[in-house]
Design a protein that fits this description.
Chain C: Keywords: Signal. The complex is a heterotetramer of chains A (281), B (362), C (533) and D (292). Chain A contains 13 helices and 2 strands, in the order ααααββααααααααα. With 281 residues, chain A is mostly helical. In chain A, a hairpin with a 2-residue loop joins β1 and β2. In chain C, β5, α3 and β6 form a beta-alpha-beta unit. Classes of the chains: A mainly alpha (281), B alpha+beta (362), C alpha+beta (533), D mainly alpha (292).
Chain lengths: 281, 362, 533, 292
Amino acid sequence: MRSRLYPVFKYTVIALWACFVAGPFFWAMTTSFKNANAVQGGPTYIPWAQYEPTLTGWRNIFGGAGGIDVIDPFINSAIITIAASAISLALGSLAAYALSRYRFKLGFIKNSDIVFFFVSQRIMPPVVLVIPFFYLLQWGGLLDSIPGLVIVTVALLLPIAVWVMVDFFNGIPREIDEMAMLDGCPPFQTFVRAILPNSLPGLTVAAMFCAVFGWNDFFFAFRLTFTEVQTLPQAVVALNSSIPPWWTLSAAALFGVAPLVLLALWVERLLSKGNLSGAVR
Amino acid sequence: MNLSATDLSLTVDGVDHLKNVTATFPPGRLHTVIGRTMAGKTTLLRALAGLQKVDSGSLTLAGSDFLKTPVWRRDTAMVYQQFINYPHLNVFDNVAFPLKRAGLSRHEIQRRVRQSLASVGLADFEKRKPSQLSGGQQQRVAMARALARGTGILLLDEPLANLDYKLREQLRDEFKALFSDRGDTIVIYTTTEPAEAMMLGDVVLVMHEGRIIQTGTPQEVFERPATTTVASIINDPPMNIFGGRTEGGQVTVAGFQATHVSAHLTDLPDGAYQFGLRATDVSLASSGVEAEVTFVEISGSETFVHVVVGETPFVVQIEGIHDVALGDLVKLQLRPDRLFAFDEQGTLVRTPSYDLASVERR
Amino acid sequence: MRSRPYRALVAVAAVAALTATACTAQSEAQHKPKDKAGLFKPGSEISYKKYGKDYPATKVKDVPGPCSYDSISRKDYSGQTLKIISHAVPVIGEPTQLHAKQFEDITGGKVEVVNVPFGELHQKILTPLQAGQPAYDVMFYPSLWIGDIAPYLAPVPKTYLDSPGMKDVTPAYMDVATWNGKVVQYPVDGDRHYLKVRTDVLEDPERQAQYRKATGKDLQVPRTWAEYQEMAEFFGGEDLDGDGKANYGSAEVTKRDDLTFSAFISRAAPYVKNPDVKGGVFFDVKTMTPLINTPGFVRALDDMVKAKSTWAPGGANFGLGDEIFSFGGGQTLMSYSWDDAFIQAQQPESRIRNKVQAAPLPGSAEVYNRTTKSWDRKANQAPYFTWGWTSAVAKASRHQQMAFDYLCFFSNEANAALDLTIGRFGVNPYRYAHFDPAFWEQQGWEKDVAESYVRTLAGMEKSTNRVFDLRVPGVNQYMSALANGVAAALAGQSSPQQALDGVAEEWSKITDQIGKDKVQSAYRDVVALEDNS
Amino acid sequence: MDGLRRHKSMFLLPGLLTLFLIIIFPLLFTIRVSFSGWNVSNPQMDFIGGANYTAMLHDSRFWASITRLLLLAGGTVLIQYVIGFGMALLVWREVHGRRFWRVLFLVPMMTTPVVMAAIWQTIFHESLGPANDLLGMLGLTRIPWLTESGPALVALMTVEVWQWTPFMFLLLLAGLLSLPREPFMAAAIDGAGTWRTFWKVTFPLMAPVSVAAVIIRLIEASKLSDSVYVLTSGGPGSSTETPGYYLYIKGLRDQQTGYGGAMSLTYLVLMTVTLTVVAALLTRALKLKGAS
């Protein structure tokens, strides 16, 4: 049925794609150990053989001269990402649960319209939002503060959380809710005790999307803060002047990806266990 | 503490799911609701549990309005046709779940869970997750959870429907024992299986197209099916129903004349009727009415032969395995003394004197 | 598990409420420093070495004065925080950070610096200013934005204007810092466009002979854009310096939303700035009619489109950084823009150190006269005082004295001297003291190189036919429209004339939008500088 | 579950209201500002009628960028879908090093787009970057990646494909892993080949996941702007300008807030309509496919 060449074909394709995916990381890795002269000498790949590696790039992201300090921004990014993701997941899964389990009708507005309202927030070009957000946060005295950024980030993440969780909850039999209620749980307890514990895969996927979008948000964090709160992407972008130090930029890029790679490992573990079944439908 | 439903009605998209359902469920009795698929049985249970809102009608428990009571305060347990358990909890915690909600002490919870699991024969499976159990075991867990709480109302929605035949028989027997000492519990059990309804029920309610069309003890319902519909629902295979006439004490059915008319039909006024005859009361013989075989089912030790006489279909149930082939021409013997007579609207007018003891319990 | 979602909600509400109340408490008074003992002896040696092992070990003497290490270290700013916005690291951003650290160390105050890429800086500075949000005390930005930002700036107090360092700033840069007669920007950098060439190629007898044979002309630093083009074409694509890689004629800033508009103005300056015609280069200041589509500008754009063939690979998408590396790294023979590429070439580790020379921007053999609508046939030079980095203090700042002290410290003689030597800092000569070849020779520059550099810079100061930036409100819109037109012509999407007609149309719209009077009154000041009136 | 009307809003409202409150002000603000002449030197809510909208109608850059976006977003999402689906199929079942591949294929979406775009810019650097170097090693001609419109669009799409194919990959892999086994067994019994099984079983079963993944990617791709900014800043000329980037130039960089508002709203309406229609069409097309 399958030709004997199939495995060869399969591994070739996988390997090609893997090279494409890993290429930029490899390039960033090797560039992060270069200095100006090594960069200007044209593209080289192998340290020692082709260029003399230095640690300048890496030193520069930890407060070295001509660099930045990524530690504080890292902590800020972590706090904002975790807080905003948690709030988005909480509010998002509550709303998604309602949209999955109850029928809403308000004039011509039905459940699917409400879901669309959530998702459609992602269509808004960020440019539209940023100036009004500025005035909104100023009004609340929340400019340049972590709570301010958390609120804004929630607006970005909530649609994602709702989108993932509605689909996920739709895959959980309603009878479980009913049974929990019959077993004496009021609706909120039903949600917390019977549905949420069975939603871990869905929550993980949603959390991953939230973390990715929250962690990597540059646009809003950049424009709604002044000096107090710097997030990691902001810190990295601060390197983007007319003389871009490729080496520092590369080191910073790799540093910023690291925590999310751990997240990818976790998601993959759930995938392998088959626990994500029904997480995305 | 009677649970009383009055005129419960529910229409969805023009289809009646419940139509003026009025019934009283006294405690300490096991009620079986029998009806075909989509007859409204599940809807009725869900309405009683509070999971389904009704359009109109009232529901009271011990005289107080039960419709206003939210689901989680109805002190009701339900076992579903699908094997529904909490996937994230192990067997022990599944059974303990409602007990914890009820705020029982840990000790008491443990005692009741163990007892309940033992009663369904799952004492050794406490630590398993539902997904690691077979279908029958999963349903036992669901049963154990429903029983452990000792709720005032216990609803079972075709709990055996999704099990294979062997398990079904086994669990049915176990249920009989489990329900025998439920004290003041109101138990309502729905099924499509006449035998299950008859065997388990103290009271049988027959549902059809959203209505309760007959209520009575199994014997009453069996002996005196109020209509042709009931007769068809409570018999498996469904009772053979066919048109006929009586004229001067002579009964003509399906193109042949009864040779001798049983006493219970002699006083029928002349006219057109519908007659019913259980499949067990028809047999194949060397002489009789000519019929053509359309379908043969062999189930266990019995053979069901579907035939047509002219246009009228019959099912014949005969013991043992018989070599009858499709298209064979056979001869039927009917037992006139077992004929039920219904008027043209389908209402029972004469019933044979029946010896219930002679009906085999399947 | 049960209460988690609710707890999160409550937490958010609480945090929001707390923050809201905390942020409303503000005091109005200006904060003054206390006195403390100084940390430096007068004239002590200053070096950046202790702030990072990558800094050069160069030492300079602390020059006594109100801004010296000694004087500033006598002020106690502990308990105060200064908020600064600056350009990305390293150009101007790194010295901002470095001097912030030093300032913290010697005054006990706290200085927070945020570094922002060029494209974002304008909006990031202006939005809070316009919203009345006291976001930053000190702002570093390109000086041409003065028209947008001036209304929100605190004038430089007299004490600082009277400091020796300030007195030494050349008149051109004091002019750049002045708005409506008040000095509102604190000069920390001097910028202009000029020409850089590779002397190792230009002075190679073999190349000179080749060039003469081919063109009949002497190989020398180009004096006009036509000569520049001819030379760039001649040398394009060969390996001229024996490093195994091809060299190219010209490197220019061409990436659309980078600083292309400045490169284009450099090319246009000699065609459009006619010393005999007064009243504006970009607009006719009387009518505010755009002149951007007049023949002078069109010819410059024609030139630039022709120059495409002389650019290095990717040269049509060069940002300033690419230009710096392309010339500074020895890939191209000639380039024109700010000092950065030249300083980069002169870095100690550079391959082409002391093989470069600075010269005034090329001129032209004729210049357009818009009153007679004809070309005046005469050699013309028009130095372009391209915007550079400047700094200013917000009017709304409650730490104005600390802010000015920081800027005065930033630009004190010792710091300025050290900053000038670190190419990536982007700090370039702006005081007479910096126009001294001896200073550059001390940095290891050869005499010829240092002299050509100082002569070029000082010569620009002497010129009376200067071009300044369009220092009016909304300058970004004008320049963005210009860059778009230039890019369209470079990409071949439209002819230079069409492209610039489009720009002129855009400009009229922008003027209407912003308000003709507003733009006109600001532009009058620019014209006054250009017309030396 | 209908007897619980009181409780359903308790679940929905916190999220809905939060989003509504966060979004409603910006939306109203934008609507209002689009009728004002708010710009850099006049940051005020005056009223200039529909002037911004009239100007927009004649703004060929804006409309050209929208047409370009249709190609860019549609093209990249299609490529992402095909590759994402292909890779998900390849590492779905038994394959050596399955976990490694899966994690690796997920990682690009974890990276910060602005930062990675800067790295990509170094990759596409015509003389110092590895892209042309590799082409050279393969004996191919160097490509002016960022200075000619064709290659620049390719470079842009490459970055987008690199960054966001993992998103498709994840959704589709999760979808594959949750498929029931029975249809595959049935197909095997019928003796269907790999290709046939894919078209007759896998693809139809994956239709709902596919639609969801494609739509959500289209939404995200329509905002394409960061990589444009870093890689080409819209050039050469305006040949890589997207609406997201053009809005950024006008609305933020030039601070023509009023005009930016008018364009943003128009864009929002256009995108909402387009995406709704596309979603409906895709759903129908794939449902038909699933039914056949």
